[in-house]
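Backbone-to-sequence.
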């Protein structure tokens, strides 16, 4: 390993603070790719659609949908720059739960994971709503222009319908995660998972000796090569169950509000990666979203709209991962308890 490479590794792993934001930014920008032009007419249409969708969704949502101060449409690189630190809750959870034996490893691990999450969304999804992870304190409604257009190109669905779906979904997504306890609950799930993502010292040294450039280049696959053990799997399933519910409910609510205007709703999804490294922080994919949406629609069909909307009134009402395929079992646990309490 050259002196320059040692210096580069030292620089990456010796950043100040509990989170290595420098590494996070490098990984995210690498995955997002180069700057891209955005059609001004598409921008204008999405801004107009955002106002329409906001007004249409407000009476349907069981939580407040505060109008954003601004609606902006950006490319993948700009999306990274504007949203990266909005995933600070995720970085803090990883840094606290998965600090390893190497100085600076917890901060670097957090940076690598968050950079991977943000870069993967920017390069492969239509927005944060598809991934299921919130942007904390989002401020402006930031729409991922290239990701939205990729859905149009891959599905052939009318671009206005695709844009309405994406804008409405992003509005619901940010409104959902304004529910006060929800990000904290997600952080606990992620913490239980991340505590198992402990770097294996022998694998770290093996990586340093065999492929140190993987670290300096911000290679997300390097993360998986540093880990050991499979104890994280049940905790990962719990996170995936939550992501299925958040993305599935978003789709169900958008479908409820725009039943006639989104005839191709079931076809609208990004063609991007379905999941990240097995030991990385998971993102929702089309299968998880479909599972969550089916659960929400089945609950509404059987027990009414108030039952499915009431899921967000407290963490004890969230379905377990195993209950997503068993809405009757969920109802027996949650709704029966409601009736018992009223007697």
């Amino acid at each position: 390993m050259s002196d320059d490479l040692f210096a580069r590794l030292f620089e990456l792993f010796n950043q100040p603070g509990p989170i290595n934001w420098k590494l996070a930014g490098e990984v995210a920008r690498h995955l997002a790719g180069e700057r891209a032009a955005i059609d001004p007419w598409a921008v204008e249409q999405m801004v107009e659609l955002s106002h329409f969708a906001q007004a249409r969704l407000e009476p349907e949502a069981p939580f407040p949908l505060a109008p954003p101060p601004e609606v902006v449409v950006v490319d993948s690189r700009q999306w990274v720059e504007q949203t990266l630190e909005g995933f600070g809750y995720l970085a803090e959870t990883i840094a606290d739960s998965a600090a390893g034996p190497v100085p600076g490893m917890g901060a670097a691990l957090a940076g690598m994971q968050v950079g991977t999450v943000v870069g993967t969304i920017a390069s492969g999804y239509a927005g944060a709503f598809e991934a299921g992870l919130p942007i904390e304190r989002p401020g402006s409604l930031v729409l991922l222009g290239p990701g939205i257009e990729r859905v149009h190109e891959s599905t052939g669905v009318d671009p206005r319908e695709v844009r309405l779906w994406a804008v409405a979904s992003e509005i619901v997504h940010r409104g959902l995660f304004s529910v006060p306890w929800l990000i904290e609950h997600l952080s606990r799930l992620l913490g239980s998972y991340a505590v198992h993502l402990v770097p294996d010292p022998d694998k770290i040294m093996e990586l340093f000796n065999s492929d140190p450039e993987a670290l300096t280049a911000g290679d997300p696959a390097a993360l998986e090569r540093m880990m050991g053990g499979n104890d994280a799997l049940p905790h990962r399933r719990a996170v995936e169950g939550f992501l299925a519910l958040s993305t599935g409910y978003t789709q169900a609510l958008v479908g409820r509000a725009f039943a006639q205007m989104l005839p191709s709703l079931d076809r609208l999804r990004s063609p991007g990666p379905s999941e990240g490294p097995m030991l990385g922080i998971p993102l929702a994919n089309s299968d998880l979203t479909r599972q969550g949406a089916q659960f929400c629609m089945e609950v509404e069909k059987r027990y009414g709209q108030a039952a499915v909307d009431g899921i967000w009134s407290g963490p004890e009402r969230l379905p377990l991962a195993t209950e997503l395929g068993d809405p009757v079992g969920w109802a027996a646990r949650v709704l029966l308890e409601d009736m018992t309490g009223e007697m």
